[in-house]
Amino acid sequence: MKSHEVDYKIGGHDIQYVEIELDPHETVIAEAGAMMYMKEGIEFEAKMGDGSEPDKGLFGKLLSAASRKITGESIFITHFTHRGYGKSHVAFAAPYPGTIVPLNLDRLGGTVIVQRDAFLCAALGTKISMHFNRRFGAGFFGGEGFILQKLQGDGLAFIHAGGTLVEHELNGEILRVDTGCVVGFTQGIDFNVEQAGGLKSMLFGGEGLFLATLRGHGKVWLQSMPISKLVNQLSPGSSNREKGDTGGLLNNLFED
Question: Which are the contacts of 237, defined by CB distance < 8 A and separation ≥ 6?
C-alpha cells in the first residue's frame, strides 16, 4: 500500500510537537495517547493494526496486536482521518523532553529500525512490525536492544529522541554507544551489545558494563538523554554517578 502524502511542521523546543496537515480522506496513524489536538473535520478510530495491509484478516490483526503487546506498546493504533473539506490539522506531542525526527522512509531505503518507544506517528501505509535482534548479547544485555520496531514504507514517519538528537553516517566504521542512547538505524547497520573493555574499565570507568556497537553502512540516530537515564537521575536517592560505576554496581548487587 502506498503511503498517504502528508505535510507537517514541528514546533517547540524542549518538548516538541508535530502538526500534520491532512487533505480530505488522508489519514495519519499514531501511538495511543500521543494526540495533542485536532481541528474540525478530523475523526479518529482505534484499530488493531496500522492499516498498511487492508486485506489482512482477523488472525493477521490479532498477530500484529500480539507483537505490539510484546514490544510494550498498546495493542491499538489510532487512525486520524480528515472527513471534512479543505485542509485540516492534527498534532502529536512528544512524551518527554527531546527532539522529534521526521523520517522519509522512501529516501532511507524503505526500512528503519527503531527502539520500541521511539515511534510517534506516521502516514497511513507505513507498516509497523516487531524486529528481533539476532545477536544474543544484544538481547540479554541491551534491554530494549533485543526487541525493536521496524518501520517500513515509502512515506513519512516521525520518531522521538530524548534530549538532543545526534545523527551519524557510517561508511564501514564502528561506533560504540551507551546502550540506551540508540534511537534507530537503517538496514545496512549491524547492531550488537559488547563488553565495555577490560574488568577494570567495566568496574571503575563509569560507562556501564556493556556498550552498543554499530557497524556497517547507513544512518544512525542517537539520543543524549534516554528516558531510563532521566528517570534514574530523578529517582529518590540517586546520585550523579551512572549505574555502571562501582557504587552503582554494588548498590545493584545488594539492592533488595
Answer: none
Report d(CA 81, CA 91) in Å as an integer.
12
Q: Tell me the pLDDT tens digit for each residue of 167-188.
A: 999 999 999 988 889 999 999 9
**Nearest Cα residue to 95 out of 67, 65, 74, 123:** 74
Measured between its terminal Cα atoms, the distance across the chain in Å is 51
Cell 556497537 belongs to: 213
In angstroms, what CA-CA distances link 60 with 56, 126, 163, 229? 6, 16, 36, 36
In sequence order, what are the residues at sequence separation of 6 or more whose Cβ sits closer than 8 angstroms to the Cβ of residue 223?
A: 98, 99, 161, 162, 163, 164, 165, 166, 181, 182, 183
Is the four-CA dihedral 199, 200, 204, 210 of positive or negative sign?
Answer: negative
Which portions of the chain are predicted below pLDDT 70?
Answer: 53-75, 132-146, 195-209, 228-256
Question: Helices marked H in the chain — which ranges?
Answer: 58-70, 136-141, 199-204, 227-234, 246-254
Please give the CATH topology (third level) of the domain spanning 7-254: Double-stranded beta-helix (3.60.160)
The ranges assigned to domains in the chain are: 7-254
Per-residue pLDDT tens over the stretch 220-254 = 999 988 776 666 656 665 544 444 443 443 344 33
Q: Name residues whose C-beta falls within 8 Å of residue 153's C-beta, 6 or more positions apart in sequence.
A: 3, 52, 105, 106, 110, 122, 123, 125, 126, 127
